[in-house]
Amino acid sequence: MGRSRGFVGYTSAPLRGLALAGLALLGPPLLVVIFVGAHAGLPSPAFFVEHGRRLPTLARRLAARWGGVEIASPYRPAPPPPVRDADGWYRDGDALFRSAFLPAYLARLRWIGRDPATARDLSWMMLNPLVGGVLAGLAPALIGGGVAAVWFHRPAGAAAMLLGLALGPRLLHLHARWTRVLLAPSARRAPGRVARAVGAGAGAGARLCASVVLSGVAMVFAVAQVVSIGLMPMRLWPETVLGSRRFVSWRRARIGEWTGVRIAEPYRPEPPLPDPEPDGSYRLGWGPVGTVHQSRGAAVRARRFGWMVRDRASWRDLAWLFLEVPVASVLFAGPAALIVGGLAGLCWLWLWAEGLGLLTGLTWSPDDLLHAAVPALAGVPAPVAGLVAAALGLAVAPALLRCHALLSRSLLGPTRAALLTSRVDTLTSSRAQIRDAQAAELRRIERDLHDGAQARWVAVGMTLGAAEGLIDRDPEAARAMIAGAKDMSVIALGELRELIRGIHPPVLADRGLADAVRTLAMDAPLEAEVRVRLPGRVAAPIEAAVYFAVSELLTNAAKHATATSVLVELRHADGVLTVTVADDGRGGAAAGRGGGLHGIRRRLDGFDGVLILSSPPGGPTVAILEIPCALSSPRTSTSSGKGSPTS
């Protein structure tokens, strides 16, 4: 609807501006509620953000209707409900669930977190009182001030009222254009340096405030453990520890996401329950320290209690839970007070409070409260002091969050002994997987030889034997049989070459990984670019693993992702070979058990490598392979291109 320029439009514009200004005042308090609720995780982080969208949605509609500016909805469509697999499970990436609740919850969480409109909505809530609120409230403020001043100076009051009425529609239009800046769909472009800095500071400030609340939750879990130890340690303490571990694991993951300080899980795996004795009892331990339990439930409780008592991570978690409140008080209390108090100061809107005083006869203002609390700030308007305080709190928030993360890692991370134990377990498992894979590969080669080339060579021998008997009686028939045997030998030779190529491609042995990958790019049914920065060659087993991994990723990009182009990059730095395969397909790839991506992970496990997969719905898909290794045989040059055979 366009702007109304008639008498009704001019008279209704101040009332509409007053309504929009009121919506602007609701932004900062709602922002605090969203961040605290989302990071506390109760009941769901997506719940607060999703329901918080109602305010910007209402503001978008009112601004478009009253300001005459079209503002489309910027939100991505909600994810569909999860679909049950044929075997009755619900799948979310590599995880399987019996119920649809958790997959749906995780999908909505990713939908909210990855939508760029979420960050734009939150930025609008913080900035709108200073920009949109002032634009929308200026006309009613002029009219209100004119009504109050007409009793003292009639010409000035009348002029202020007329100016407010005249500017009303134009200010609504400017307010709508401002609303479109943040609440309309944005073109895909990288944010500027200033925008990135502001966004990082705002996010760090909100997470710092949320950490203050979460420190209180940590203290609740710590007290619960102490109470359970004092009451019924055998029955209550293991269950309390498991609940605390879920919270601590969640905090460990959030710390990694917020600060980049990754903290590995330090817990030992739960030992299995021994088989029952002939009389139905269960024996835990051996010798004089062993105990016998008559029921399975008692044995499970005793085994779980002993497992948690012996696991040092249980006691380190308890120490961290107790220390969260004092650490948060030292690191976060001051900046959180600056941020929350600064936002409250911005919400006061000193100009409107003064106008309200003229209308109602009130003699106090928000500035009086500020100056009474901090006499040193006498003469500084409350919004200015609030802006400075919030900016100061946001500026120091990232450094304090990282300091807290480093302190937390010293307690929540695995010890050196635990890391060595975990590495030994991983290598043992990887060796078993490699042994199984080698046995399966030998069986496949044997089956292919038996059913393919061997059968054809037997047929060739039989055909030549029959032709030998026909040479004297029917030379023409013998000649035809020999020609058929020749054709079968060519086919058998091709099958042998394919089998050899599947075991170890000749180009990989002759020319190295770079040229082998370029050959894959030339054969790929899509536009593929290869960039190589390898000053030498890696070990042959690693070359083979990377070659087949890249082959699988190119096949997935063309077959499943329906991509049109793909970029393959190979580089080596700091003792790590990194292979990146990025396509422009539709995304949605998952390394599910039994799939090609799961096979790539199994290949890399044998070399202590990892596969990092990013494939949001809609794309793009980026797969990163990282393998620690050394280089040898230095190369003379590197190049890039679509399958260029030269180095």
Kindly describe this structure.
By secondary structure, the chain is of the alpha+beta class. A six-stranded mixed beta sheet has the order 8-9-7-6-5-10, covered by helices on one side. The protein has a two-stranded antiparallel sheet with strand order 1-2. The chain has a two-stranded antiparallel sheet with strand order 3-4. Strand 6 (565-573) and strand 7 (576-583) form a beta hairpin. Helix 3 (54-67) packs across helix 7, helix 6 (132-149) runs parallel beside helix 13 (350-360) and helix 8 (193-231) packs antiparallel against helix 9 (236-259). The model is unreliable at 635-647 (pLDDT under 50). The chain is 66% helix and 8% strand.
Count, helices: 20
Note the main sheet. Answer: 6 strands, mixed
Q: Given the helix and strand composition, which structural class is it?
A: alpha+beta
Poorly predicted runs? 635-647
Question: What is the topology, as strand order, of the major beta sheet?
Answer: 8-9-7-6-5-10
Please state roughly what percent of the residues sit in beta strands, choosing from under 5%, 5-15%, 15-25%, 25-35%, 35-45% or over 45%: 5-15%
Secondary structure: number of strands: 10
Overall spatial form: extended
Q: Span from first to last CA?
A: 63 Å
Share of residues in helices: 55-70%
Q: Determine Rg (CA atoms, Å).
A: 35 Å
Overall pLDDT: 77
- SSE pattern, N- to C-terminal: HHHEEHHHHHHEEHHHHHHHHHEHEEHEEE
